[in-house]
Amino acid sequence: MKRLAALLTAAVLLLPAGPAFADRDVLVSNLAELNQALGAAVSGDTIVMADGTWQDAVIGLTAPGPLTLRAQTPGKVLLTGRSSLSLNSPHLTVSGLTFTGGQAPDGAQSVITFNSDHGRVTDTAVVDFNPAEPQTAYYWVYFKGGHNRLDHSLLRGKNHQEPVVGNDRGLAAKYNAVDHTRFADVPNVGRNGMEALRIWGYGQWGELGTQEGAYFTIEHNLFEHVDGDDEIISLKSNHNTVRFNTIRQSSGGLVLRYGNHNTVENNVILGERYPASEGIRVSGNSHTVRGNYVAGVSGYGLKVTSGEHMFDENNQLDYLTPGFVPQRNPLAPYGYLFHYGQVTDSEFTANVFVDNAKSDMHLGWFYKNHWPAYQMVLLPERNTFTGNLVHRPKGGVAVVTSPQETAPPLEKFTFEPNTFRGNVVHGGTLDVHAPNSSQGIIVLPRSRQAPPPPPQTAETGPTWSR
Prior knowledge:
The chain is mostly beta strands. It has 2 domains: 23-129; 151-465, 3 Solenoid (Pectate Lyase C-like), CATH 2.160.20. Helix content is 5%, strand content 36%. It contains 2 helices and 43 strands. Helix 2 (31-39) links the parallel strand 1 and strand 2. The longest helix is centred in the N-terminal third of the chain and has 12 residues, at 2-13. The radius of gyration is 26 Å and the shape is globular.
């Protein structure tokens, strides 16, 4: 037995030494030390950035994961000047950093970039990290890989071109997520393309596949005074989920711009009559919009858009008038892309609308918009509206369906009706046109008791900033 024990001890001593050094904490005080530590890193290491100001720190993380880069004290590592962070290998985690008092390096696409898969940035802030000129374009966070996550972070004060957060157009950028993050104080500087989140992916060019998509999740985030674009959240791809977010006092709305098969559920939008505040706008087909609460916006509660007619039965461009200017796009299935997709086969269920300035549900919004250059004449059809509740203490029109014009050249179009079941309107009126029917919408006298908003998003932003 003694001989066996001695042999086992000798075998253990001969094992490779690598695992004995796993889970090391390596403190670094400058960029040179950080790069040296990354070059010597092994799986399981934690590299700790010393508290203080890191000027012009361009950090490219390429290391065997899992590996963590964190601040010595969350919120006390300040990246200033021309600094950026990129996660270039799988299974990397970054925590506790603050980008402030600087801007992205010249030519950079973003401040924080997920170039690989299964990365995470958490407990981190980007605050007023802006160039001198608002036309200088870069994102603050950009996803190029898949299965990445930004969470419990703060993004405040972006005032220049490009969205705060973006998902790449390529098929590799899938299954990413942003959660428990606070977006705040994005001013309107009169430039298009300054959304809080713009989610590109399959579906952005009207592709015809039904299973492919970005599969991006946006949940439990807080948006306050986010005014950069009339699309606060802009979905431009298939199969995304937006849920349990709170939008408060922000110009714009939650928008399904391009793509199909998206889910928008249990979000709270509190306009408080903030200028240009909106609810939810929907284009495309096979969406699910349920359980959302929209109150006090200065615009519409829900806008279900008209779609653009582009092609005849042979998939050839169909010019309803000589003034039609089709939107050429070689990446679209037939070489041209509609401005807005027709809304069909979607479900709108158990949404609550309270004291909104304009109509709470408008079906066929944008009908003949920019006519005849655009052919926005495809009314919503085959959609189902079930159990939605409207409270209008000041009266006004609650539900509108745009009427179809039948004078040439529009007489050739016919549309199937949308279905209403168990919807209730307190204190409002209806403006419903064929082929739709108001059957399934109950109109009751004005009620003093409107349902209060559900619990709002809590615990957003970095733990050290609460």
